[in-house]
Amino acid sequence: MEIKNLTLSFGVQKIFNDINLNIPESEKVGIVGVNGAGKTTFFKIILGFVSPDSGNVKFMNNIRKGWLPQVISDEIPSMDITVLDFLLSGRPISELNEKLQRVYEQIAIEQSENKQKELFNKVEKLQNKLEYWNYYSSDTELLKIINGMAISDDVLNKKLNELSGGQKSKVAFARLLYSMPEVILLDEPTNHLDNDTKQFVINFLKNYKGSVYVISHDIEFLNKITTKILFLDKRTKKMELYDGNYNRFAKLHTEREKNLLNLAEQQEKEIKRLQEVVDKYQSASGKRKKMAQDREKKLEKVIANKIEVAPLQKQAKIQMDMLRESNNFPLRVKNLSFKYDKKAQSDIIHNLSFELKRGEKFLIVGENGVGKSTLLKLIVGQLTPDSGEIQIGNKTDLGYYAQEHELLDNDKSIIDNFSDISLSKNKIRNILGRFLFYGDDVFKKVSILSPGEKSRIALAKLSLKGANMLILDEPTNHLDPETQKIIAETFKTFQGTMLVVSHNPEFVDNLDIERELILPSGQLNFYDKKTVEYYHQVNSEKKLYKK
Fold it and tell me: What's the pTM?
């Protein structure tokens, strides 16, 4: 990859500033930086979805690129096909075989030797293409990927439009691996993978002969696959390439920042010392005047070569306040049942009952596809139960964080997404500043933001609700580790009631969870970290449902 004079701005906000870099072929490159540094935007430039203001990013001509976005939506052109057909479409083997069959049929009826020769040339080209796609071993290769990604036979026969967001991501990932691109681009690929599946992906990518570029906050994953780290510095709008894995980058980067800071401090002392001499003797005469002139020249030279240390990256400041206390029991669920397909024999949620007391922190766990997000949508009223009751206390004020940010309007600017909040624009802008959106940032369209930035907007809206009961669906997805720590501390100190779906063991363990609900069984237990770790490891997809 060659990056030449790359510059990009969104309005007055500069993202990249005159970047020049060369990255060798067949490297496994981790792309890191804080949320909003431009990681996903960089991928979109590579793919041609975003045009830079100047410069470009170049690969070899006709190189094939495969992309796994962080959130799967419009990237899949047709959702009305089976998972198996979607996976098979990763290689054009079926189309090539059909073309080969038609050419053979033409040869059988063609009388002209010259035309037959042309047709046999076509046969040879088509067979070469089939060999390129490993025609004879392709079924075996696909089966290895299907097994490695823990996609069951039942899943293979379902249609894509029946999958949850996490399931779509896993299937899209499997198809990408099968499609043999020369360059693989992965945006937070481990968000929906259990440990066994993640290990399969790690082994696959380590042995992959092409180039891999991966955006990830999963340090363990980066350490195991990367040969280089590309650091996107939001402060300087530059990129820096480091050899080795993430841990080596972190060590070198920290040492470099520390050394620069020390040098800058020494320069500041030297500038101050020289300036004092110049100020003291600039009006003198004789040797003292000459000394002042000499120091002034040295001062100019030091200032001309001054080390500019970028200011430290600010951290989000998140606060969740309640407007009032709720009832003693803000939520009661009684004999709740629900299914999307009313003709289906089994329910997604079946005869479920539980209640939350005021101030309780309550966790929902279970494998992907068992109805966790569905339950939250029933509670907040986005879905209607088939039977049973959901009783919301008359003093219960709900605040809902949706996993896929569907509560945000992508066609509106950041600040226009707060038009339903009865606060002045200045007050809203002050709040957004706490979530690291400054100045003209607030006029950006939500559609151009990274998933991490969308997460911060969703959290900002949640913080203004004044809710006394928070409904949180995987709130740490897409957030960098530092922000995850900040929101963990915020939710830990929240005085209200909290119902959370999460399989992030480190995050959950810091929340002071009291009880846990396991789906689909409906079993209620006291909180046990081992349960979260278990579902984090075995969160394979055995049942499908439509969220």
Answer: 0.64
